[in-house]
Amino acid sequence: MKQAAFIGTGNMGGALVRAACQSVPPQDVIISNRTRSKALDLENDTGCTVAANNLEAACAARYLFLGVKPHMMRALLEEIGPVLTPGQVLVSMAAGLTAETLAGWAPPGTPILRIMPNTPCSIGKGMIALCAGPNAQASHLQAVEHILRFAGRVERLDEGLMDAFSAVAGCGPAFVYPFIEAMADGGVLAGLPRQKAMAFAAQTLIGAACLVLESEEHPGALKDAVCSPGGSTIEGVAALERGGFRGVVMDAVIAAWKKNTALGKQ
User: Do domains 2-162 and 170-264 have the same CATH topology?
Assistant: First the structure.
């Protein structure tokens, strides 16, 4: 059998296909998508194989990455369930659908895993949560970590924290982009050309984020290291505090988390 099949290769699924084809031989990856032209583009770009349909993809690989939307998942599992064999592993990308729910739609005994990727996976800089569901074994987690390693950082997480993870890492890029834009707008207001201001702001966030991860220093300590007494940086930090910056960001994460939990109950 091939190592990985991807059923549903939209923006996120397609990004993971590209990553998988760097981790394993492309000929060990088979894909299926409702819009066949998108699947053929991926085949041309990566060397993977396009299946004739979902059933062919489901029969062909050990790890089946299911990239359809949550409301389509039950129908997909009912479609491919009859052709699944012992030893195949289902990996769901669907937000809000618990592993227990998925197990109820899959053949009895099928190992279930869940992943939650974010959009920077498309450039290999993503953050992916991975959790084990019914019948999952350590070897299954290790295999998925290997397959997705070129998509970004893969972190194991308890399923009960997946909604919180999604609020931070899944929704987070949409919170960061307005901040980059606002930083650049401020630079333009101060006289910088627009293109340069945008590049300066984005690179500053990249550098600051990498410093947090690599130094393992608390962000507060790193902030303090930049703030000289009576200097311009502390003036800017004070302006952020007057605007309720940290509270607003926390509110955004909690609002997204509440929505995620609500979606899981529908």
Answer: no
Residue spans per domain, the chain: 2-162, 170-264
Architecture of domain 2-162: 3-Layer(aba) Sandwich (3.40)
Provide the CB-side half-sphere exposure for 24 (13 A, CA). 20
What whole-number distance in Å separates Cα of residue 203 and Cα of residue 163? 29
List pLDDT tens digits, range 98-130.
999 999 999 999 999 999 999 999 999 999 999
> Residues 103, 91: contact at Cβ < 8 Å?
no
Identify the sign of the CA torsion 157, 162, 167, 170.
positive
pTM exceeding 0.70: yes
Integer angstrom CA distances of residue 244 from 189, 191, 209, 247: 22, 26, 21, 5
82-115 as b/e, with b when 16 or more CB fall inside 10 Å?
eebeeebbbbbbbbbbbbebbbebbbeebbbbbb
Best CA proximity match to 171, nearest among 92, 249, 253, 248: 253
36-46 and 11-23 helices, crossing angle to 10°:
30
CB 137 within 8 A of CB 238: no
> Is the CATH number of domain 170-264 1.10.3730.10?
yes
- Phi-psi group of 87: left, alpha or beta (phi > 0 → left; psi -120 to 50 → alpha; rest → beta): left
